[in-house]
Structures are given as C-alpha cells and as structure tokens.
Amino acid sequence: IPILLPDLNRSFARFTVEEGAIRYGLLGVKNVGEKAIEAIVQAREESGPFVSIVDLCERVDARAVNRKVLESFIKCGALDSFGIERNQLLGSIEDITKYAQAARKVADTSQSGLFGAGFASTAKPKSLLFAAATPATEQEKLLWEKELLGLYVSEHPLTYAKEKMSAMKPTLIKDILAERSGVKSYRVAGMVASVKSIVTKTGK
C-alpha cells in the first residue's frame, strides 16, 4: 500500500486513506503539536485549502504554527503543493515567520478599527519574495523524512545503489535466517543507520 507524504491541504491529525493509499498524519511529524494541527484543519474547513504560503500565514495563528513547526513542514514535504522549492522556503523562513506574526497583529487589531487599512498596509508586505537557492537533493529530502517522520516515505536511500548491490549478488537476510544450518559465509548489503563510538579501557 503506497504511503503518501504529509500534505497541509490533505492530511489530518491521524493517518487517513486516500485513493487506495495511506496519507501520513500531521501528528506524526516531529515538532508539530495538536494545537497547530487543530488550527490548520479548522482554517481549511472554514475557507478551503491553502493556496500559498502567504495564505497560510494570514489564515493560521502564528502562535500555533510557529517557526519550528514551519521548518518541519517544509523539510518533510508538507508544503510542496505550494510549488516552491524546499530550500527556498527554508532560506526565507525568517521572512515567513515575520510575515505570519505581522498578519496575526493585523487580525488582532482589525476588530477595533483603531488602525484600519493603513496599519495593515504598513505592517506586512503584499507578498513574500523567495531568494534563489540550490534545490535540496533527493538524499537530503530522504534524510529529512527520516528525521521528522521516523522513516523513509517517498523511497529508500538504497534505491540509488540498487544496481551496484545487484552486481555483488548479496544474500537476503530472510534467506539466511531460513537456513540456520551449519557455519557458512554470506555476502550481504545494507546501510549504516548510526555510529556509536565507545572508548575501551585501553583508550582506543
């Protein structure tokens, strides 16, 4: 069953079924809490999907969807539907955060009518400009998925080494476990997930 990356316009708090696939839930994204998810879902239900990062900033409380939450959404691909490259968004995260905070102030003061349109026009820009940035590599995206979602979703890093591994003719772990007879040598292929250095009594 295909697993789909989280999407700010399609995902809910929990995992959901979407056209024969499983859409990753927003609650499974690291650094994202229930308050942020509730604010996002409520805004979608009230006024429809978000059409841009500016639309998101203006419709969702910046106190709920703060900088840390935005960074996590950007890295895991939850904002890909906006059509802006991830590194461009990350490079502009400071401006995005300031825009969201200014939009919140406009929303908080607009009810009183004390400042009116004049405040709105000077408190926040009409749009956000994203500086050019080197696009994130597929490997970087996969590392972000692992970091923020706990697993690789779009594909596995070993996919890029598939041909090299096939040429080595490794034995699958499941086949080794199935035999369990005698002492034999096998050639296996894998990926180092983590490294832990331990200092021995001899200092090595």
What would you note in describing this structure?
The chain is mainly alpha-helical and 204 residues long. It contains nine helices and three strands; from the N terminus they run E-E-E-H-H-H-H-H-H-H-H-H. It has helices at 34-47, 53-59, 67-76, 86-91, 93-110, 116-123, 138-149, 162-168, 173-179; strands at 3-4, 16-18, 21-23. A hairpin with a 2-residue loop joins strand 2 (16-18) and strand 3. Mean pLDDT is 86; it is low at 117-122.
Layout: helices, strands, pairs:
Layout: E1 3-4, E2 16-18, E3 21-23, H1 34-47, H2 53-59, H3 67-76, H4 86-91, H5 93-110, H6 116-123, H7 138-149, H8 162-168, H9 173-179
Quickly describe the structure.
By secondary structure, the chain is mostly helical. It has helices at 34-47, 53-59, 67-76, 86-91, 93-110, 116-123, 138-149, 162-168, 173-179, and strands at residues 3-4, 16-18, 21-23. Helix 2 packs parallel to helix 5.
Determine Rg (CA atoms, Å): 23 Å
Helix-strand makeup class: mainly alpha
Helix-strand pattern: EEEHHHHHHHHH
Q: Going across the biggest sheet, name each strand in turn.
A: 1-3-2
Q: Major sheet, described briefly? A: 3 strands, mixed
Shape: elongated
The count of strands amounts to: 3
Q: Give the N-terminus to C-terminus distance in angstroms.
A: 47 Å
Q: What number is the mean pLDDT? A: 86
Strand content: under 5%
Question: What's the tally of helices?
Answer: 9
Low-confidence stretches: 117-122
Q: How helix-rich are the residues, as a percent range? A: 40-55%
